[in-house]
Design brief:
Rossmann fold; alpha/beta; five-stranded mixed sheet; globular; 600 residues; single chain; 22 strands; binds thiamine diphosphate; six-stranded parallel sheet
Length: 600
């Protein structure tokens, strides 16, 4: 994160949100990591006098955040878009109860699915949950809207969503910062049964309250200058929000604009105004026709998704093509070609501890019901040993379903789930497997960190975000407590033993668990041992080492007498895990130091 300097900084959207929260006097932040939201919490945690923590999943994070708000503390909760699905249960009712301390939920959406399994548009969720939503167009907006969101939350007694997208979260623009407020901890919880005990009789009036609040918020939305009318051309008006504003503004500088900072409650009066002022109004927005539907409900004559794609991320070229389709640009500017990007298909890192267990799973030809984490990459060639992936925690439930319904039991049924994902949402699945007596194996790939999202602490790591030592809960203890009778811990760098342990677990009648354990090769800092080399004159070109999919191993360009590719190992990438050594049938892979000894 950049240093504060003369109140003007070049900031990522995520850093700008952290600054906005700090300036609003927010004391408490809680999150579950997920791209593109993960940097907000560590950025906030660096401010003096605040407290920030990861929770095991988004539902818990929101519940913790609700508790913090109930003491009167301003509270920031962050997650990626699909995380909001996990948190929907508490959220849908918290919007009835309302807040004490301002409560801001950041939903980081991911159009184009740069690192997600879907590209849902959480403006829709905000409306469904009856919470106002802000939609920033740059880091300044992200900062300003976060600050306003805390005010609005307390003024209208509502949780507020700040919905950003990847391009806002991970791009830098200039931000003018404001004064820092001292973070304030609330005094204590104040009992208010009719508001905080949402049983039917108390909840009914709160629903009515939420409906009236939405109407009041719509008045605010119409007044607020973040929903900004820029009236120029009478011929063409554009209603837009988020990142799309930047593209369309560059392409049609003379058009009139309604730049929407708060998509819901929709600023209906301002939308009517631009429609009255302009002959034709086009809505340019990323993903769902959210603004378009709001405008059409009002009977406004707008166009939108007829021309603008509903899938994927918008960019200058896509918006230009849409405007050309709508007849608003005569010439589509030539697509700007940057420097060619060399395709880099995602692969497990060199030395990744997940590789060994997948080599074993491939050997036993298991159907592997997968989950989300680095280990999902095993779905791709050359490993191709993960056959489903829907959402975090799904692997175990999926495997219960297949195991209970398959009639021919052709192949072993195995769930693979990471340690972070198991803590997030695997525990109840395993409880179901055990208590249903399901014949299946659960492999917990334990690299002792939440690697995929940047190496965040999880309940097994024993440290927290603030650097404190905290109790760690061991996977073995949870698995045993859930009633699993067959549990093995394997070292995935030892291939033969791992394979034997996996076979034994699969043969067990009932639910078995293999904890496939080895710390991630990157966290803590990659431990570089002596790299390995291929003895060219011994390599027989069989390709066994290529098939483990290690990015440190490549074709050397040299050929054996039979014309087969001789492997080579990149010494800078090799971590010395020795998995390739274990699959090489001719012992052609040896430590570099040993070759030097031989050659000496
Ligand atoms: C509901 C939800 N929250 C967050 C994420 C982002 N995310 C993807 S994988 C992952 C955690 C992976 O950690 P772990 O299971 O330990 O596997 P590793 O990457 O370390 O192999 C997270 C948080 C997500 N995809 N879905």
């Amino acid at each position: 994160m950049s240093e504060k300097q003369e109140n003007r900084l070049l900031l990522y959207g995520n850093d700008a949100i952290a600054h906005g929260a700090r300036e609003a006097g927010c004391y408490f932040a809680v999150a579950y990591p997920g791209t593109p939201s993960s940097e907000i919490l560590p950025a906030f945690a660096q401010f003096p006098g605040v407290f920030a923590k990861w929770s095991p999943n988004e539902k818990v994070a929101v519940e913790v955040g609700i508790g913090s708000s109930l003491t009167g503390t301003r509270t920031l909760v962050t997650m990626k878009h699909v995380g909001v699905n996990v948190a929907m249960d508490p959220l849908m009712t918290f919007t009835y109860s309302g807040v004490r301390g301002g409560f801001v939920l950041v939903s980081a959406d991911d159009p184009e699915m740069h690192s997600s399994q879907n590209e849902q548009d959480n403006r829709c969720i905000a409306k469904f949950a009856k919470m106002p939503v802000f939609d920033p167009s740059n880091s300044q907006d992200a900062h300003d809207f976060t600050k306003i969101a805390f005010e609005l939350s307390e003024q209208f007694n509502t949780p507020v969503m700040l919905r950003e997208t990847t391009r806002i979260a991970h791009a830098q623009t200039m931000v003018t910062l404001g004064e820092w407020e001292e973070p304030v901890q609330g005094e204590h919880f104040v009992r208010d049964t009719s508001r905080f005990v949402m049983m039917p009789n108390f909840a009914r009036p709160r629903h009515a309250f939420a409906e009236q609040r939405s109407l009041d918020l719509q008045d605010w939305s119409n007044e607020w200058d973040g929903n900004r009318l820029e009236l120029k051309s009478k011929k063409i008006g554009i209603i837009t929000s988020g990142i799309a504003y930047n593209y369309v503004r560059e392409l049609l500088p003379d058009a009139s604009y309604l730049k929407i900072g708060m998509p819901w409650p929709f600023p209906d009066k301002k939308a009517k105004e631009i429609c009255d002022y302009c002959d034709r109004v086009l809505i340019v927005e990323e993903l769902e026709p959210f603004l378009e539907e709001e405008a059409k409900i009002l009977g406004l004559p707008v166009e939108g998704k007829k021309f603008v794609p509903r899938e994927g991320e918008l960019n200058l070229d896509r918006v230009a093509a849409s405007l050309a389709k709508a007849g608003l640009l005569d010439e589509v500017p030539e697509a700007r070609e940057g420097a060619p990007v060399i395709p880099r298909p995602p692969v497990l890192c060199a030395g990744c501890p997940h590789r060994g267990i997948y080599m074993a799973l491939k050997k036993v030809n298991a159907d592997v019901y997968g989950d989300i984490g680095c280990y999902t990459l095993a779905a791709l060639p050359p490993l191709e040993t993960l056959h489903t992936c829907f959402c975090m925690g799904a692997s175990i439930g999926n495997t219960i379903g297949t195991s209970l319904t398959e009639s021919d039991h052709k192949r072993p049924q195995v769930a693979v789930i990471g340690d972070g994902t198991f803590y997030h949402s695997g525990i109840t699945g395993l409880l179901d497997a055990v208590t249903s007596g399901v014949n299946m194996t659960v492999v917990i790939v334990d690299n002792s960190i939440t690697a995929m999202t940047g190496g965040q602490e999880n309940p097994g790591t024993g440290t927290d975000l603030m650097g404190n030592t905290v109790p760690a809960v061991k996977l073995e203890e949870i698995v045993t407590a859930l009633g699993v009778k067959k549990l093995t811990v394997s070292d995935t760098y030892d291939f033969d033993t791992t394979l034997a342990q996996l076979r034994e677990a699969i043969e067990y009648e009932g639910t078995s668990v293999v904890i496939a354990r080895r710390p991630c090769a990157l966290f803590p800092k990659k431990k570089k041992t002596n790299p390995f080399v291929v003895l060219e004159d011994v390599c027989n070109g069989c390709g066994a080492c290529f098939r483990i999919g290690c990015p440190a191993i490549a074709d050397s360009g040299k050929r054996t007498g039979k014309g087969l590719a001789i492997a080579e190992i990149d010494p800078a990438a090799c971590t010395g895990c020795e998995l390739c050594v274990q699959v090489c049938p001719v012992d052609a892979i040896i430590p570099q130091g040993k070759r030097e000894e031989v050659n000496a």
